[in-house]
Amino acid sequence: MNLRFVETFVWVARLGSFRAAAERLNATQAAVSNRIASLEAEMGCELFERMPGGVRLSTVGQRALQPAEELLRTATSFKVAISSPLQLRATISIGTIDSIVHAWLPQFIEQVKARFPALGLDLNVDTSLGIARDICERRLDLALLMGPVLRTGLKNIDLCSMECLWVAAPSFGLGGQPLRLQELRAHPVLSFSRNSVQHVWLLRQFEELGVPPPVISNSNSLSAVSRLACDGVGVALLPLPVAAAAIATGALERLSITPQFPALKLHAVYADDPENLIPSMLAVIAREVSLSAAKGAP
């Protein structure tokens, strides 16, 4: 059985047309049609029902899809097993968030380059909402974000959790005393991007307290939020790795505010693609690095 024909069958099944599969496989539509016809002739059955504008799996094709994907996955695993990491040449697109950039992303990249020196990395930093959208639309191979991303065909691996805290410049005089969340109404607040999990949590807390929220300024750049907080523009909600350096130098003070903001739950997300096992291997590295960084955190 020709594995290329099996691969073509899987992509036609996933995309629902010979044309789309041909584009994905960098082949002509005629070549894709011939491969499917040859596979059907070899199997002695029709794998697809032809319809105007596309195809759909026949009853036999539906039964064959999962074994075909497992066959490709096994073949890919075999290639990876007998290949040296030095020979894995590809460019992997990775989406991540500010919090991870300031925490353990450098160590992650170091580990990836040490294990797969010929692997190129295409990095994109955005909000978790933006990264989740991109991984769902398959514009990324791997997403490192606040998750999980619950979508058919995507795998989620738990990473470390990340502490989030309130900080302010010493000029506010809020450090070293217990505060309630509603007391922040007297100050401008700097927060994560609008409609993020953190922003929604903050608005909900004020709603439950029965008091109007303070004036909140949002940004999708946590570096910008940290800089503005250091300059005394407002009280800020930040992940610990983003604020740690400013706290260490005294530019920011850690505040004791009740209720405490819940830790950020981080995940590595990738498509369950039997032909591309590299993102799954990088997800495992991300887990190792993030858990190691969490153990070493102050």
From TrEMBL:
Could you say which residues form the signal peptide? none
Q: Which UniProt keywords apply?
A: DNA-binding, Transcription, Transcription regulation
Annotated coiled-coil segments of the chain: none
Does the keyword Nucleotide-binding feature in the UniProt annotation? no
Q: One Pfam match, by short name?
A: LysR_substrate
Q: Which GO terms describe its molecular function?
A: DNA-binding transcription factor activity; transcription cis-regulatory region binding
Q: Does the keyword DNA-binding apply?
A: yes
Q: Where is the HTH lysR-type domain?
A: 1-58
Q: State the InterPro entries in the record.
A: LysR_HTH_N, LysR_subst-bd, WH-like_DNA-bd_sf, WH_DNA-bd_sf
Entry-linked PROSITE patterns: HTH_LYSR (PS50931)
Similarity comment text for this entry: Belongs to the LysR transcriptional regulatory family.
Entry protein name: Transcriptional regulator, LysR family
Species, as recorded: Verminephrobacter eiseniae (strain EF01-2)
